[in-house]
Amino acid sequence: QVKSAGGGGYRPYVSVRDAQIARRLVLERELRGALDRDELRVVFQPIIRLSDGQVDGVEALLRWDSHRLGSVPPADFIPVAEETGLIAPIGDWVLRTACRAVAAYEGLRVNVNLSPRQLADPALPGVVAEALQVTGLTPDRLALELTETALLRADEATTDALVALEELGVELVLDDFGTGYSSLAMLKEHPVHALKIDRMFVAGLGADAGDRAIVEAVIGMAHGMARPVTAEGVEHEGHLAILKDLGCDYAQGYLLGRPGPLTDAVGEPPA
Ligand code: C2E
Ligand code: MG
Ligand code: MG
Ligand code: MG
Predict the structure, then answer these.
(1) I need a surface site. Which of 29, 56, 90, 227 has the fewest CB within 10 A?
(2) Is 227 in the pocket of ligand 1 (CB under 6 A)?
(3) What span, in angstroms and rounded, lies between the C-alpha atoms of 138 and 108?
(4) Is the CB of 61 under 6 A from ligand 1?
(5) Which residues contact 19 (CB under 8 A, 6 or more apart)?
(6) H or E stretch including 218?
(7) What is the pLDDT of residues 227-242, one digit of tens each?
(8) CA-angle at 143, arms to 161 and 28, nearest 5°
């Protein structure tokens, strides 16, 4: 207890830690009903092919507009969904929603993020196969973005899932490359087809010689293994010029298009 200013009374002292726990419980409680209350939506950010500047595909990103809490960022609620297991129904819904939206366009490709727990779930390959079947999207038009953390688990369930997904014919992309316990050996050990350089390295392009060296090395090694590279977080023309210079294949970022309705990225679907 701390003595309150100016009065003789006492009020309960709420620690930062207690406040975090309380927030976490509220998030969990609200997230449980979010799907049923229709509070979730998927936005899309264009992925640009640097050789010709055209949209190659889009990344699906989840948004939560909570009636009670307002807009909650994925960085806050995805971990809660992970820990509670809510990621299974939510992830399933994202997959279907993203595949359905993109299937309306001819040949358009979509990237969907998967969390470690989804990848370790033996039901995942079936869930992906069903999403493709129900929406009519062909497997070559779906890419699943995995993180190094998910691959690090490297338990039998995860390895089996990767093999099954590869057999389905979907592309596997290593996301946020360089931020985790990263090792290029992961590209060798797992059936990963492409990688995305995290925006923390892109941010320093043009200013930080170290970041340029890292980006250059990652592109060089990925290309040596015949894997295409996407740069995340491209915000300035200067970033773009250097990435083109370094032979980066694709780019994504606020400069090229913010996450939003699919029509913002690719216009109306053909009738
Ligand atoms: P991520 O997969 O690395 O997604 C890229 C993040 O960078 C997105 O944040 C995007 O809005 C943001 N971004 C894109 N361009 C720029 C830029 O130029 N500058 C800056 N500063 N940021 C940019 P968002 O949407 O808040 O998502 C954060 C993370 O949450 C994602 O990182 C992903 O790991 C996770 N996430 C989002 N949607 C899903 C989902 O449906 N399922 C799962 N499992 N995770 C998701
Ligand atoms: Mg991603
Ligand atoms: Mg990423
Ligand atoms: Mg990232």
Answers:
(1) 29
(2) no
(3) 10
(4) yes
(5) none
(6) helix 209-224
(7) 999 999 999 999 999 9
(8) 70
Q: Looking at the predicted complex, does its ipTM rise above 0.90?
A: yes
Could you tell me if the CB of 199 is within 6 A of ligand 1?
Answer: yes
C-beta 253 within 6 A of ligand 1: yes
pLDDT-based confidence at 6, cuts 50/70/90?
low
- In this prediction, residue 1 carries a pLDDT of 46
Is this model's pTM higher than 0.95 or not? no
Range 244-248 contact pairs with CB under 8 angstroms and sequence separation of 24 or more: 244/50, 246/212, 246/215, 246/216, 246/219, 247/219, 247/223, 248/50, 248/197, 248/215, 248/219
Within 8 A by CB and 6+ apart from 227, the residues are 187, 192, 193, 194, 195
E strands in 67-99:
70-72
Q: CA–CA separation, 106 vs 154, rounded Å?
A: 36
Ligand closest in space to the Cα of 78: 1
Ligand 1, atom 12: nearest CA belongs to which residue? Answer: 233
Residue 196, ligand 1, Cβ within 6 A: no
Of all protein residues, the one whose alpha carbon is nearest to atom 27 of ligand 1 is 74
* 239 within ligand 1 shell (Cβ under 6 A): no
At 57, is the pLDDT very low, low, confident or very high (cuts 50, 70, 90)? very high
Give, for ligand 1, the residue of 113, 145, 236 to mutate: max count of ligand atoms closer than 8 Å to Cβ.
113
Residue 41 CB contacts under 8 Å (≥ 6 apart), including other chains: 62, 63, 65
Q: Nearest to residue 138, comparing CAs of 113, 181, 171, 116?
A: 171
Ligand having the closest approach to the CA of 45 = 1
Q: Mean pLDDT over residues 101-110, rounded? A: 97
